[in-house]
Design goal:
The chain has 836 residues and is α+β, with helices and mostly antiparallel strands.
Length: 836
């Protein structure tokens, strides 16, 4: 079964096949670019394979440009650089992805000698040599390394989707071998024998095969990316959306490629119809010129055949030839013909216009010539044949010579050399032919094609040609320029270029035709414009898939992070909640917080932070529980983005027990261990604070200094245990006389006590001092060793100062101490006052 028409079809649409090949590589680049990151030692450097496919796809697409704009130096250099860089990327993918080379093999410098060998071919073969050397010295080892890297990754995987990498590795090997088969061997030989086999007997073009292989690799890698289990890389929802996007984009790309072919063909048809109209007018002009030439020759030969000299010469058997010869020579001189001659009824030349020429044909037998045989038998008298002497095409016009009875007695023949201008062939920019019914070229706009066959004749045609014997004198070998006979409106390929066929049958001779093969440049322009439009839509589709896939991967990663955060959030053994920055509304809260504050989760989400917090912020604040109990809380906050809002994550620690413990510890540290009232440390602190407040308010502050009279004697008499009990009772008596929160009673040291009274004037202080003295005396604690009383008594010094600039707490303390010594000097068990 002859399938060469399929190959011709793909060759005719080679520009779209190139687009398909480049598109398959771009899809392969997309599959690598959106490849989900694999964890572990089997990770492959997909970015390098993506770079190879993308750059090589652009290189392939550049192959469409020469058909429209020609192949300039800039285009050749750009194309070669794209090719070399893409091969380097493929080589790096194989080197970095190979587990052996990655650990023990050479580093990136190994590419330098390969580049040097590739570039060195420029000196001998030019840019074409660089192209071919790059295929053999960069692409071939790089492609095999890439295939081995893919195969190695498939062997290390434990999941079945990784077996897809083995299939991709096989396709990569086929892709490399197919490219090598169709590449010219550097420094000798046109191509490999397999290339000749593919070219002669193959149906598919190399670009189409490579396009299918590239598309296969892209599909396999896409399926691998979609099927690989990636340990939480995609949630179920996002995985389904990713698969939908993949199949939607795949179907869209397939639909786009198929519909793009129809769109490009539609533009081709528009340009072709316009071109056909323009070419038809040109062919009509050539046909008219041919008919005019033939009609003129027929009228002239009829005139010669009807002349009296010709009739007389033929009727006399050539005896009365002189007058006829003169007429023929005179006609030849006036018309652009090569020779005119007369023949008898047997085909023998009786008279010729070339009597004086060394090429005289007098007496020769032309009975077997078609232009003689047919008219003598009542057939056509118009014929084109090859000149036996020169091998050039010549036109023969013949007409019978009749006697008075109407019987054919001879034949008049005119031979004219066909010039290019006769058919307007000299003005044709494309290929023009005059052919017979068998496709033999008798005249052409390219003279070197005369004598060849435009298409190979079939057996019936060869039989007819053998009978007609009109090719017996052809000096050129018969060679078919086209694969098969062409018809009107066909598109055919000649020497790799597309041509539109315009075929017009001429009336004389019958079944001959003028054929014009015109390069439809406008159709090529329309097709490239259509392909550019398809590329734009293709790029938009691929871009949409990449953006969608990357966005989906980012969303999936965010979702995974949020899920992990949510798991930690919910299971945290502490209160965690999120508030909106502006409104302070609670956006989320974990279960621990709801149980801790005794709220339902939905109740918390309807509240703000201010509804919970009573006072303070950060490390020192208090929250109100549902039962209005206040608890101390320490907050740790951080600004985050939550559901598209700027928010704050707050971790709240219950420090109520710690606060109570701290307050207890503080109380203990600020209390006298024996008496239970404030100690000296607390006294100093309270005095400083009270003084500062009095300074701000501009008020008075009073201080009482108290000392147990003869307490040393008490200890010596009753013992230290009794002394401690005495101190406790005295401290209790002093404390019970002060009921304001602003007052403080403290053990100053030993048997000394002090009372701070902010906002108390001198009379008030004196009154309270006397009350304290009396209260201690009223205790009736026996003190036989006292020199002033049989019971324990106090000596009290009272001092009052208005807090202002120039005064200080030390002055107040000194004044109170001075008053105390005054009370002792005056006899003890009394109150003395110091005014400032």
């Amino acid at each position: 079964m002859d399938l060469t028409f399929l190959r011709d079809f793909f060759l005719y649409h080679k520009d779209y096949v190139i687009f398909f090949y480049g598109a398959s590589l771009c899809i392969l680049a997309t599959a690598c670019f959106v490849m989900k990151r694999q964890e572990g030692e089997d990770e492959l450097p997909w970015a390098f394979l993506a770079a190879f496919a993308l750059l090589h796809g652009f290189h392939v697409w550049l192959g469409i440009v020469p058909s429209l704009a020609g192949s300039g130096l800039f285009l050749v250099i750009s194309d070669s650089l794209l090719l070399i860089v893409s091969f380097v990327m493929l080589f790096e993918f194989g080197r970095r992805g190979n587990p052996i080379l990655k650990k023990k093999g050479p580093t990136w410098w190994i590419i330098i000698p390969l580049l040097a060998v590739t570039a060195g071919s420029w000196f001998k073969l030019g840019w074409t040599g660089i192209h071919e050397n790059a295929v053999f010295f960069l692409f071939f080892p790089g492609g095999l390394l890439a295939a081995w890297a893919l195969f190695s990754a498939s062997r290390r995987g434990k999941l079945w989707p990784r077996r897809l990498l083995a299939a991709c590795s096989l396709l990569m090997v086929l892709y490399v071998m197919e490219t090598i088969l169709f590449s010219q061997i550097p420094y000798g030989g046109d191509s490999l024998p397999n290339r000749w086999l593919f070219t002669k007997h193959g149906v598919l073009t190399s670009e189409l095969i490579e396009g299918f292989l590239g598309m296969g690799m892209a599909l396999i890698l896409s399926l691998y990316s979609q099927s690989a289990d990636q340990a939480e890389a995609m949630l179920h929802y996002f995985r389904r959306r990713s698969r939908f996007a993949f199949w939607f984009s795949t179907c869209t790309v397939i639909l786009l490629i198929v519909s793009g072919w129809f769109f490009v063909q539609y533009l081709d048809d528009i340009a072709t119809r316009k071109h056909e109209y323009d070419v038809a007018k040109n062919v009509e002009l050539m046909n008219n010129k041919w008919l005019f030439f033939v009609d003129a020759a027929q009228r002239d030969v009829q005139g010669i055949a009807g002349s009296s000299s010709a009739v007389l010469a033929v009727a006399s058997g050539g005896k009365n030839w002189q007058h006829a010869a003169a007429d023929l020579e005179d006609y030849r001189m006036k018309h652009p013909v090569e020779v005119c001659f007369l023949l008898d009824a047997k085909g023998k030349v009786l008279v010729s216009s070339a009597l004086a020429s060394s090429k005289s044909i007098m007496g020769e037998d032309f009975s077997r010539r078609p232009y003689v045989e047919h008219p003598l038998n009542g057939g056509e008298g118009s014929y084109v044949d090859f000149d036996p002497a020169t091998g050039k095409s010549a036109y023969y016009a013949s007409y019978p010579i009749y006697n008075a009875q109407g019987t054919i007695i001879g034949l008049a023949v005119i031979k004219e050399n066909i010039e290019r201008s006769i058919l307007n062939f000299d003005k044709q920019p494309d290929l023009a032919f005059l052919v017979n019914f068998g496709g033999t070229i008798f005249f052409s706009s390219h003279p070197q094609m005369v004598g060849m066959n435009l298409w190979p004749p079939d057996e019936d045609t060869l039989a007819k040609l053998s009978v007609s014997r009109h090719r017996q004198s052809s000096a050129k070998p018969l060679k078919a320029l086209l694969r098969q006979e062409v018809r009107q409106g066909d598109n055919t390929l000649f020497e790799g270029r597309r041509y539109l066929v315009t075929r017009r049958f001429v009336m004389e001779p019958a079944n001959w035709a003028i054929i014009l093969l015109s390069a439809n440049r406008e159709a090529a322009t329309y097709r490239i414009m259509g392909i550019v439009v398809v590329i734009l839509f293709f790029s938009l589709t691929i871009g949409f898939f990449i953006v969608f896939e990357k966005s989906l991967a980012s969303s999936a990663q965010i979702a995974v992070t949020e899920n992990r955060f949510r798991a930690l959030f919910e299971s945290a053994p502490g209160a965690i909640f999120i508030i909106e920055s502006g409104t302070r509304k609670i956006l989320s809260a974990n279960n621990f917080m709801a149980g801790w504050l005794d709220y339902r989760p939905e109740e918390l989400l309807s509240m703000t932070l201010d509804d919970l917090r009573v006072d303070g912020e950060g490390a020192a604040c208090r929250y109100r529980k549902r039962n209005d109990v206040l608890i101390h809380v320490e907050e740790v906050r951080s600004e985050i983005s939550f559901r598209g809002h700027t928010a704050h994550l707050i971790i709240a620690h219950d420090i109520d027990d710690r606060k109570k413990a701290e307050e207890l510890l503080k109380t203990i540290s600020m209390s006298d261990g024996l008496t239970g009232i404030a100690n000296r440390r607390r006294f100093d602190e309270f005095l400083d604070q009270g003084w500062r407040r009095a300074m701000r308010a501009g008020t008075e502050i009073s201080l009482l200094m108290c000392d147990i009279d003869f307490f040393k004697n008490y200890n010596d008499t009753y013992g230290h245990q009794a002394g401690d009990d005495c101190l406790k009772r005295v401290a209790l008596a002093i404390r019970d006389n002060f009921h304001r929160a602003d007052d403080l009673a403290a053990r100053y040291g030993g048997e000394e006590f002090a009372v701070i009274m902010p906002g108390t004037d001198a009379p008030g202080a004196l009154s309270l001092a006397e009350a304290v003295r009396a209260a201690v005396e009223a205790q009736g604690i026996p003190h036989n060793a006292s020199a002033v009383s049989p019971v324990v008594t106090l000596s009290v010094g009272s001092a009052t100062i208005k807090a202002q600039r120039g005064s200080s707490a030390k002055a107040l303390l000194a004044a109170a101490d001075k008053a105390l010594y005054q009370a002792k000097n005056e006899g003890r068990n009394r109150v003395a006052t110091s005014l400032s």
